[in-house]
Design brief:
actin filament binding, L-fuculose-1-phosphate Aldolase, single chain, alpha+beta, Aldolase_II/adducin_N, Aldolase_II/adducin_N_sf
């Protein structure tokens, strides 16, 4: 049961946008709950359906300070389209703006660089696909060479070329990852899968002995079956809602 008082919806915000804002704020809080934050840095963005605008966190706030009301609304170039006392983090606009502007199948983008993920991004081989979670990422991962902090619009076409038309995980070499999906629950489930794959790969790499390799056909079947589940109407929604309940049950209201 959700025991938290519902935040007040501003009069100028539609019901659909307010629902998206609430869900995006929950996503920020989940990333904080699981310890995947990087202080005030990194970003989670959600596109407003039917527009070229997306919602993103106000720069300077911790993830647990993000609320539905203080999320800022920007265009694909990072310009605010509504008044707000907050600004965004310019380092996120090139990455998020590029993906939102080019991929109609991606409405939520999450960028993190946890220790495990950043360790995999540093390794030339990148993500393996021999463990249960890594197998689910077969055929879904792209790689982009590090060019420094993603501040500049000139990098956008190169990031998009690296991501391609069908990948949903972009490993930013020497840096971190960005995952993108059709909506917030699907993006969070993908982030969780990527994080688990990274943690297991790092742990296995620290152990003596050879890994048991999976045939490509097996790992690809695992990825395909996962996508069939995700394509359903409520698989990711159930997962996301369960994580929100878990979070709210373990922190003060």
């Amino acid at each position: 049961m959700d025991l938290q008082p519902a935040p007040l919806q501003p009069a100028h915000v539609s019901d659909a946008e307010w629902a998206l804002r609430r869900q995006l704020a929950d996503c920020y809080h989940l990333v904080d709950f699981f310890g995947w934050t990087e202080t005030i840095f990194n970003h989670i963005s959600a596109r407003l359906p039917g527009t070229d605008h997306y919602l993103v966190n106000p720069f300077g706030l911790n993830y647990d300070e993000v609320t539905p009301a203080n999320l800022i609304k920007v265009d694909v170039n990072g310009r605010k389209v509504e008044d707000s006392p907050y600004d965004g983090n310019p380092a996120g606009f090139a990455l998020h703006g590029a993906i939102h502007g080019a991929r109609e199948d991606i409405h939520c983008v999450i960028h993190t660089h946890t220790t495990a993920v950043s360790a995999i991004a540093l390794k030339r081989a990148g993500f393996g696909h021999d463990d249960f979670y890594g197998a689910q990422l077969t055929g879904r991962v792209a790689y982009h060479a590090f060019e420094g902090i993603t501040l500049f619009a000139e990098e956008k076409p190169r990031m998009l070329a690296s991501l391609g038309a069908d990948k949903h995980v972009l490993v930013l070499r020497n840096h971190g990852i960005a995952v993108g999906e059709l909506d917030i629950p699907r993006a969070f489930f993908l982030l969780w899968t990527v994080q688990r794959a990274a943690e297991i790969q790092v742990a296995a790499g620290a152990m003596a002995g050879d890994n048991v390799a999976l045939p490509h056909a097996v790992s690809q079947r695992c990825a395909d079956l996962t996508q069939q589940l995700i394509a359903g109407d409520d698989f990711a929604e159930k997962f996301f809602a369960a994580m929100v309940r878990q979070m709210r049950g373990r922190r003060p209201h």
